[in-house]
Specification:
eight-stranded parallel beta barrel; TIM Barrel; globular; binds phosphoenolpyruvate
């Protein structure tokens, strides 16, 4: 089995103006030629900053943080794959837990009595990923359990269900080219990183589900990333694991200085 090229993926979430994105991309462009080894770097930026990221002249991939599957029409506030491609996107994030979760009691300032804001579910995630693949872009499918699911012993069942539903209808070649990010919801933005051996166990399980759904070659090819409070301090322990092929990184990707050790560790192989 050939070694998989690791991926250092930045998720800027709802951060950065175009001017801030331009500064970041200039710093990243200067950094990447100094990195020893091989890694794929992808920047998942807000829609308004994507053209700036693409114009930055670095070798990094350019990723949208979401997409709607329809090509055009009366869908106020949505963005199509054609629009993402128009500004140079190569990748699209699909099913991030911040888009799946139902805001309720813990975050009343966001939802008030509404109970649900973004509301992606396994069915919409599958439609989005299918559209991304059909457009020839690389999807990054996010899966992960909530704290309540983990405490109830439902981690593996939750992730397997998200994978089965999210990948439904895709062929082996499409899945081999898709990134899968294991992101335990309780570890995202909390500073609480999943233990290395547990992250490895779940990422191996993800690969096992792909093998069961498709075949071993597809499972051996697909890149499985870990996401959840990854930083320069913990990246080495995570990337040492045989089934972790990189990181989807939020907070620690917001400056090139913080992202640099993650990129360098991914490139080390
Ligand atoms: C993320 O945004 O997917 C993420 C993992 O965030 P953080 O690294 O801040 O936990």
């Amino acid at each position: 089995m050939s070694k998989r090229v690791a991926v250092a993926a930045a998720n800027w979430k709802m951060n950065k103006t175009c001017a801030e994105a331009a500064t970041y991309m200039a710093d990243l462009k200067a950094l990447l030629p100094t990195v020893e080894g091989t890694a794929e770097v992808v920047i998942f930026a807000p829609f308004t900053a994507l053209a700036t990221v693409a114009a930055g002249g670095s070798s990094a991939g350019v990723g949208g943080q979401d997409v709607f599957w329809m090509a055009a029409g009366a869908y106020t506030g949505e963005i199509s794959l054609g629009m993402l491609q128009d500004v140079g996107c190569t990748h699209v994030l699909v099913g991030h837990s911040e888009r799946r979760r139902r805001f309720g009691k813990p975050e009343p300032e966001l939802a008030g009595d509404l109970g649900c804001v973004f509301g992606d579910n396994d069915a919409t995630v599958n439609k989005k990923l299918t559209a991304v693949v059909a457009a020839g872009l690389v999807g990054c499918l996010c899966v992960g359990e909530t704290l309540a699911e983990r405490q109830a012993g439902q981690t593996d069942r939750t992730i397997e269900a998200q994978l089965r539903a999210g990948l439904a209808g895709l062929d082996a070649a499409a899945v081999a080219n898709t990134l899968i990010a294991y992101e335990p919801v309780w570890a995202i933005g909390t500073g609480e990183v999943c233990q290395e051996d547990e992250a490895e166990r779940v990422c191996a399980m993800v690969r096992g589900v792909v093998a069961a759904l498709y075949d071993q070659a597809t499972a051996d090819t697909v890149r499985v990333l870990y996401g959840g409070s990854m930083s320069g301090e913990n990246v080495d322990g995570l990337l040492c694991q045989p089934n972790i092929d990189g990181g989807l990184v939020g907070g620690a990707s917001l400056t090139v200085a913080k992202f640099e050790p993650i990129i360098r560790r991914c490139a080390k192989g």
